[in-house]
Amino acid sequence: MAEAQHDNITACAEIVLKGDPARFRAAMAAPLALREKLFVLFAFNVEVARAPWVTAEAMIAEMRLQWWHDALGEIAAGGAVRRHEVVTPLADILSPEQALALQSLVEARRWDIYPDVFEDEAALWAHLGNTTGALMRASLGLVGVQSTPELDDGLAAVGLAGWLTAVPALIGQNRHPLPDGSEAAIARLAGDGLARLAPARRAPLPKLARRALLAGWQTAPLLKLAAKEPARVANGTLELAPFRAHMRLARLALTNRW
User: Fold this and answer.
1) Per-residue pLDDT reduced to its tens digit, 54-71
2) Positive or negative CA dihedral for 115, 121, 127, 128?
3) How many CB atoms lie within 10 A of CB 150?
4) Which of 17, 41, 87, 169 is least crowded, fewest Cβ atoms below 10 Å from its Cβ?
5) Helix, strand, coil % over all residues of the chain, rounded to 5
6) Do 198 and 190 form a contact (C-beta atoms < 8 A)?
7) 197 Cβ partners below 8 Å, 6+ apart?
8) What are the tens digits of pLDDT across the range 173-227?
């Protein structure tokens, strides 16, 4: 049993390394016990996030997401859970309440299937809160910490930073990632994200909770860059230089910040 569990953790780590290297690096900075849990949670996120994109058939994409929704339902029910390299270890780390909360993440990913338009910025913020926000709230749950409305705003801002880096790819897939794609609107949106992030980062949290949130390590500099040079969002150059990114992660891990 222990060997099978180890194999599942290793498989989850490989999924995260290939599908979400930034979160993999953040997880590696966590203590071993938390690191393994983060690998499982982040592997779940990778699998759910890519489910809508592996097929052009909307019905099949819906079925893939429903599979994950049902798996979380099994975990929440506390009975038998389907055997799977991600679902099996996920059942070991989530409470029933946490599993139910993550169903909102799966449901929000249905946006990726269709070329829907966000009605306004409030709708975009709600989507970010239900995707990245839900994932990071689950990360906090792994160390027994509940989020707050102030933290929720900051966690959605983490989602915004990643979202802005993905805008060109989403547009290339005939999606409409921003309610207003003008440079002025992007700069304003990034500024809103920074305003939401600042108080959340000042909130008092235990050391392990800050390690659980370290996946947001690039958020502040990316949002500052988007606010200053919003054209980078459309042209796909919203990113940190590798050395700067590496040093920032190391500094935040060393100082127990996120």
Assistant:
1) 999 999 999 999 999 999
2) positive
3) 13
4) 169
5) 75, 0, 25
6) no
7) 153, 154, 157, 158, 219, 220, 223
8) 999 999 999 999 999 999 999 999 999 999 999 999 999 999 999 999 999 999 9
pLDDT surpasses 70 at 1: no
Q: Which residues contact 57 (CB under 8 A, 6 or more apart)?
A: none
C-alpha to C-alpha distance for 22 and 26, rounded to whole angstroms: 6
Specify the DSSP class assigned to residue 56. Answer: S
- Give, in order, the Cα–Cα distances in Å from 235 to each of 162, 231, 238: 15, 6, 8
Q: Which long-range contacts (CB under 8 A, 24 or more apart) does 2-8 make?
A: 5/89, 5/92, 7/85, 8/40, 8/85, 8/86, 8/88, 8/89
pLDDT tens profile 69-96? 999 999 999 999 999 999 999 999 999 9
User: What's the N-to-C CA distance of the chain in angstroms?
Assistant: 35
Rounded Cα distance between 124 and 128, Å, is: 6
Q: What is the per-residue DSSP string for 151-162?
A: HHHHHHHHHHHH
Q: Which two tokens stand for residue 208?
A: 């392990």
List Cβ neighbours of 230 (8 Å cut-off, separation of 6 or more).
183, 184, 186, 187, 190
User: Which residue type occupies 83?
Assistant: R
Exposed/middle/buried for residue 11 (C-beta within 10 Å: 0-12, 13-18, 19+):
middle
Stretch (H or E) spanning 51 = none
